[in-house]
Design a protein that fits this description.
- This protein is of the alpha/beta class.
- Helix content is 20%, strand content 38%.
- A hairpin with a 6-residue loop joins strand 9 and strand 10.
Length: 167
């Protein structure tokens, strides 16, 4: 991809934006990933370091997972360095069920479900992997402060199940 302006593309219910980001290319994927999300069509135009922001993925079915795996495999064959940013809960669940859904990609950050002890609010909070690596690999997840009331939020899943994709 050249250093041109951002490219926006729709593949069914999936919206994709590809833009230069310093020494990398930032690819943002949002919406619903299904049979129409033929991401491998995009791999010939990508090279080098690719940062894929998955925070906007609301849904992914088995065909969407297959298309995602093909896309990752294409980038691996081209020796691209793939970094996954803001992996939505839907993507995390797929990476936990299907080993190839992560491939050789590095996970930079992911969303995790939390619930507030004080007000009961539920939020998906982004967790950075690097500063929390040791804790996360021990299946411990940091507590968070509730953005609504300031109370203490607790992780709302089973850490030894939810964090499998990191090992």
């Amino acid at each position: 991809m050249s250093a041109a302006a951002a490219v926006k593309k729709s593949m069914g219910r999936t919206q994709i934006t590809i833009a230069p980001a310093g020494d990398a290319t930032l690819m943002t994927i949002a919406g619903e990933m299904d049979d129409q999300a033929t991401l491998s069509e995009l791999s010939p135009s990508l090279s080098g370091k690719i940062i894929v922001d998955l925070g906007g993925v609301r849904f992914i079915n088995s065909v969407g997972v297959r298309e995602w795996i093909i896309f990752l495999h294409d980038l691996e064959e081209k020796k691209c360095k793939v970094v996954l940013r803001n992996c939505s809960e839907r993507i995390v669940h797929q990476m936990n069920m299907v080993l190839e859904a992560r491939g050789d990609a590095e996970v930079e950050s992911f969303h995790a479900p939390y619930v507030c002890d004080k007000c009961g609010a539920e939020h998906a909070i982004s967790i950075q992997v690097a500063p929390n690596r040791e804790q996360l690999l021990s299946f411990e997840i940091p507590t968070q402060t509730c953005p609504d009331c300031g109370g203490t939020m607790q992780f709302d899943d089973l850490p030894n199940r939810y964090l499998l994709f990191l090992s």
